[in-house]
Structures are given as C-alpha cells and as structure tokens.
Amino acid sequence: MTRRSAAFLPFLIALPLALPSAPAYADGLDMSHGEAVQLFWKKEEVYDRNAQTVTLTGGARAVRGDTTVDADTLIGYLRKKAPVPGQPAPAPTPADGKSASSNDPMGGSLELYRIEARGNVHIYNQTDQGWGDHALYDMDQGVMVMTGKHLKLTTPQDVLTSRDVMEYHAKTRMSVGRGDATVTTNDGKQVKADVLVSFSKPNDAPAPGQSAKPGQAAADSSNPMGGGSSKLDRAYGWGHVVLRTPTQTATGDRGVYVFDTQIARLIGHVHVTQGQNQNNGSQAIVNMKTGIATMLPGTDSPIQGLVVPNEANSSQAPK
C-alpha cells in the first residue's frame, strides 16, 4: 500500500478508460462513457496494490465529461485494461511488478471501472443533481446506487426523493426510488409509492408523429450527456400509491402515470378524494390535469361513492 500527496495528481488524471461509447439515448447523470476521468483531492491518496484501489481523502472529486462526483472520500476501483484485438500484447512484466513500457504502480495500462463515494455525496451535471450519504457508480453498466438520508435527484422539471435507496440506470434512462419514494413536478403534482420506477425520454426526442431531424442522432451521441436534461416520460408505482394535485388525492395498490398526458391508472383498493367527496373501487383512470376521475368496474369490490351536497355545488366531484 502506498501513500502519495496531491503532487502526483497528473498520474491519476491520465488513467485512460477504454469503455465503449454508450448509445445516443444515454443522458442524465451518466459517467459510463466519454473521455478519461479526472480525479482531485485535498488530503491524501492511498494506493492499495492488492485490492487494486485508490482512495482519495479530505474532500475529493471525480469528473468525466459534464458529470462531477463530489464526496468526503472517493474510492476508485482499478483493473488492467483488456488487450485491444489486433494490437500487440504489452511487454512482459519484470519481477518488480512494473511494466518496462509504463511507470504506473500496477505494471501496465489501467482503467477505472467503478467509483465509490462516501460522505456528503453530490453528483451533478449542468442540469441534473443527486444527493446522498453513500454512492456506488458502476461505469460498465452505467448504474449509480445511492443510500443514506435525504436521498434526492433533481431535474429542471421534477424532484425524486426516497427514504432507503435511490438508483439511476443511464443506459435505460430509469430512476428507482425505494421506500416512501416521491416524484414532485414543478406544477405541484405528486406521485408517491413504496417503490417508484420512472423512465425519462431521450433528449431531443421528436414529437409524436414527427421524425428525427437530419444529423440529430449523431449530435446526441457526440455529447456525453445526451444534449442536456431529460424529461420524465412515465412512472410506475407499487405499494401505497398516492397521486396528489392541489385539489384531489387518489390512492391505490399500484399504478402508472404518464407525464405528457397527466393521466394515471390506479389498480387495487382505489380511493379518489376531492374535498369531502370520495369514490371507492378497484380501478380508476385519473386525469390530473382536468381533475376528473373515472371509476372502472372490477371483480373485488363494487364502485361506491360519497358526495357531499355543498361540496358538489362548489367544485366538480370525481366521476
């Protein structure tokens, strides 16, 4: 195990990453593709040859493309780079463990394939941000898993929070909140569930019925962040699903919400409440834009409703 000061920073910055380019739709807080990772730290760098890790302490930062990870401590997991087909094998490693053609401590070309962040974790790009106490980012899979208190992901359009675990899957544009998870939009609409899985659209996606502009895919793939912040497409909820607008609350066992249409479908022990009015049933279609809820027949229970006269006269009751 070796310890070095920040004077050796250029060695770590120069570590190349030979990962394949991700598809053009990858966006958000994505470090799975792009140029080399730059590492910065304030106190000490500890290199463990046996574990093949480098630990940066005292406040550290990793930067790749437009994405930055800040934390009290960063741990980089290293591996020898796989040989490129068609290129000659590296020179034999001498007895001291160092390659004759390289001055790095592992004796060959290295790549950083995983980053672990501990303490006051903040991952961000120009538009999106995430916070947690601990994070693990797998650069091969493009998956970030955060744990700790006050977990949160933000975009210009919405905020995702959870109590236990928060995941971001760059290659599928999927965010997962586990434990009292909530998505809140800028216009005050909210989707809440025990487990909430949301999918975002590809950046610069053409409108329905329109084709992509010439050169759009190429432009997207050249930008590691996919051209900016993504927009949520839909969210799936399991367990104690709650939909809220300023005037209406709907609950169910599970459901799906489409952000463009602002229409949700709830299934299982559905309750739709507006003021003192309430409808109960097994299924419902809820238009969170108009405030109209349509109860659907089911097999487990009949549709039931409670309408308070003064409430019905002052506001539109759910249907």
UniProtKB/TrEMBL annotation:
Annotated region (Disordered), positions in chain: 80-108, 200-231
Organism listed in the record: Gluconobacter kondonii
InterPro entries named in the record: LPS_export_LptA, OstA-like_N
Domain Organic solvent tolerance-like N-terminal: 46-172, 229-291
Signal peptide range in chain numbering: 1-26
Gene3D superfamilies: Lipopolysaccharide (LPS) transport protein A like domain
Domain of life: Bacteria
UniProt key word Aminoacyl-tRNA synthetase: no
Source lineage: Bacteria, Pseudomonadati, Pseudomonadota, Alphaproteobacteria, Acetobacterales
Pfam families, A to Z: LptD_N
Keyword Signal among UniProt keywords: yes
UniProt keyword annotations, A-Z: Signal
Protein name: Organic solvent tolerance-like N-terminal domain-containing protein
